[in-house]
Amino acid sequence: MQASAVPSWVLRVVTTSAATLAFAGVVWLGFWLLFRLPMVTFAVAVAVLLTALTAPIATRLRRAGAPAALAALGGVLVLLAALGGIVSLVGFRAASTLQDLTRPLAAGIDRIRVWAIEGPLSLDAQQVAEVRNQIVGRLYDAAPTPGAGAQLALLVLAALVLIVFLVFFLLKDGDRMWRWLLERVPARQRARVDGAGRAAWGTLTSYVRGVIVVALIDAIGIGAALLLLDVPLWLSLTLLTFLGAFVPIVGATVSGVVAVLVTLVTNGVADAVIVAIVVLVVQQLEGNVLQPLIMGRALSLHPIVILLGVTAGGLAAGVAGALLAVPMLAVAYRIIEYLRTHPATPEEVEAPAVPVAAG
To answer: Greater confidence, 168 or 290?
Structure first.
């Protein structure tokens, strides 16, 4: 007696379940490797962001007739020339900035402690003192020692060298890498993957350009107010504002609080109130005007999603995770939206033209 054939729906369920489990296993393995090699992961992520920033330069050089290697080298050189001053400023002033800011911040916290005890709140002096000591201790611990600073400098130098080489090869061979990946995708799904990749790349490019413009505007606005008020550490605070803008919501809030506290200690209450007003105005302008106008759809995420993403990234990978959380969320959201709005059709059986990743 011949056995009955297995129903087709059973085969589909088994196949789909196996594919889902295999995909979940690959994703888990990928994230495990990412967290096991944080320096390499961060270097690759930064290299991709910088490639998105410099890709138009390499593309223009290619269209002008330059070979791929020369066009990539030109993009890298322009990037190094543009960022060299910023990197030098950050490298030489980062440690001194932390050391300069710890004393004024500690003094500002002391003023707040006195107001909390003797002011209208009338809090318990011992509890306030314990909180104050914890905060001040963390501030002083943040300032690196000479040995830790030297070790950090070596790690940063190694990461920068790796990033430069990655950017060069991504600009030079990005189209070949993308073609190689597309060839591993089933032909029926290749058009959707290609379109999702284009959408993700466009979102990433818009995000990188937009966040730099927004960071510059924030730093110029708040830095100008600090300079006009003659705050002694205005340059350090301006640098902190610029860097803080790369972490949406959280970075701007922290840098704004630091600017107000330092101004409170060095210049008094009146100037601190003025700085607080300027910070609030700049942040409202950023959130309601600059980001929608400059970034467009690159950051069409709800503030709660951004806040949760930054928090999760910071808890998982520290400052690097907080910096990379938002662009990763924006890219993931754009890919999901593209796949949702472009369902697969039976006619999608031929491989599409491969985009040039450098453009």
So the answer is: 168
